[in-house]
Amino acid sequence: MTGLDQLRELSVSERIQLVEDLWDTIVADAESVRLSEAQTAELDRRLDRFEEDPSEGVEWGALKTRILNSL
Predict the structure, then answer these.
(1) Alpha-carbon Rg for the chain in angstroms
(2) Which of 5, 14, 23, 35 could in theory staple to 39 by disulfide, Cβ–Cβ 3.0 to 4.6 A?
(3) Ordered DSSP codes for 14-69
(4) Are 18 and 7 within 8 A, CB to CB?
(5) Which residue ranges make up each domain of the chain?
């Protein structure tokens, strides 16, 4: 059995938690991750759009709850 097979045996919520935990390890080393010019431009575009109309945004906690409730 491969590692991927073992991951597929986890529930969806367990796999989501695993991804969150993995992401947290990446964020901890964020200084070593460099964004491309295209990524920086896209983030700037999204920030500009949010600043034009903050009501279009969704708070992360609310979005996470909505996603988890839909599973």
Answers:
(1) 17
(2) 35
(3) HHHHHHHHHHHHHHHTGGG----HHHHHHHHHHHHHHHH-GGG---HHHHHHHHHH
(4) yes
(5) 3-28+35-69
Q: Which residue has the tokens 């460099």?
A: 34
* CA-angle at 32, arms to 28 and 36, nearest 5°: 120
Would you state the structure tokens that stand for residue 41, as one six-digit string?
């431009």
- At 13 the three-state DSSP class reads helix
Distance CA 62, CA 45 (A): 23
pLDDT of 1 above 80:
no
Confidence band, pLDDT 50/70/90 cuts, at residue 33: confident
**CB 33 within 8 Å of CB 26:** yes
